[in-house]
Amino acid sequence: MPSLQEEAEEHLLVVDAEEDGGEPENGPAIKFKIRDLIKESDSGQLILNGVSVDIPKGKIVGIIGPSGSGKSTFLRSLNRLWEPPVGTVFLDGRDICDLDVLKLRRKVGMLFQLPALFEGTVADNVRYGPQLRGIKLSDEQVYKLLTLADLDPSFYHKGSSELSVGQAQRVALARTLANQPEVLLLDEPTSALDPISTQNIEDVFVKLKNNGGMTMVMVSHSIKQIQRIADIVFLLVDGSVVEILNPHKLEEAKHPMAKRFLQLSS
């Protein structure tokens, strides 16, 4: 019988053609479809102003834009950390509001700016999600997940309080991968890390996409980071996606505020 991690790797590597219909001739399959997504603040100010975009399967989508433009709110709508209106966010063609929220969050995992680990060892943290479902990961399965997140298996017994921020972020990634997600939401996951830790994490993301077909949606304050790893860029300004661009052709942006943001951030 294959291990849980072997099943996870197979799940990541094999495209379910029956469910997803393969890749259509005119472009990649769509993982998320967002239509007229609106969010208002308590004071009635629009945070998201009718966002309508498609997120392709197996790609890294970068989201950039000025502070306060709704980037994190958009990201959190994709796994119902913020509850979107019915009929606005669809995962594999299904309205996410119709899905069990815990199952949705296992499918659509999330990494935050600062990792929040539980008390206990690294292994305790990695085992947490499957354990909630009555699944006990073996030592070997934990080692494989740590390796997948670019951590040496020797970290297995380390306490969560002993780790650097970069190491803790990779443990948080291993913990998320233990749930066998189909999508990773990344909310500035390297902004608190040093350059070497940042590169390590970026390398893991690219490997997950290239070797496993993982879909990722990443908010970043770093345009250079988005250019290094993203396949497509959404430019969000005042709650609206005003440009969708190739990351290496950001100079082609035409929206005035988008152009100004890119000039000031370069």
UniProtKB/TrEMBL annotation:
Gene Ontology biological-process annotations: phosphate ion transmembrane transport
GO cellular component labels: membrane
Residues annotated as domain ABC transporter: 32-263
Name of a matching Pfam family: ABC_tran
Classification via SUPFAM superfamilies: P-loop containing nucleoside triphosphate hydrolases
Keyword Iron-sulfur assigned: no
UniProt GO MF annotations: ATP binding; ATP hydrolysis activity; phosphate transmembrane transporter activity
UniProt keyword list: ATP-binding, Nucleotide-binding, Transport
Alphabetical list of PANTHER family matching this protein: ABC TRANSPORTER I FAMILY MEMBER 17
Family, as annotated: Belongs to the ABC transporter superfamily. ABCI family.
Designated name of the protein: ABC transporter domain-containing protein
Organism the protein comes from: Nepenthes gracilis (Slender pitcher plant)
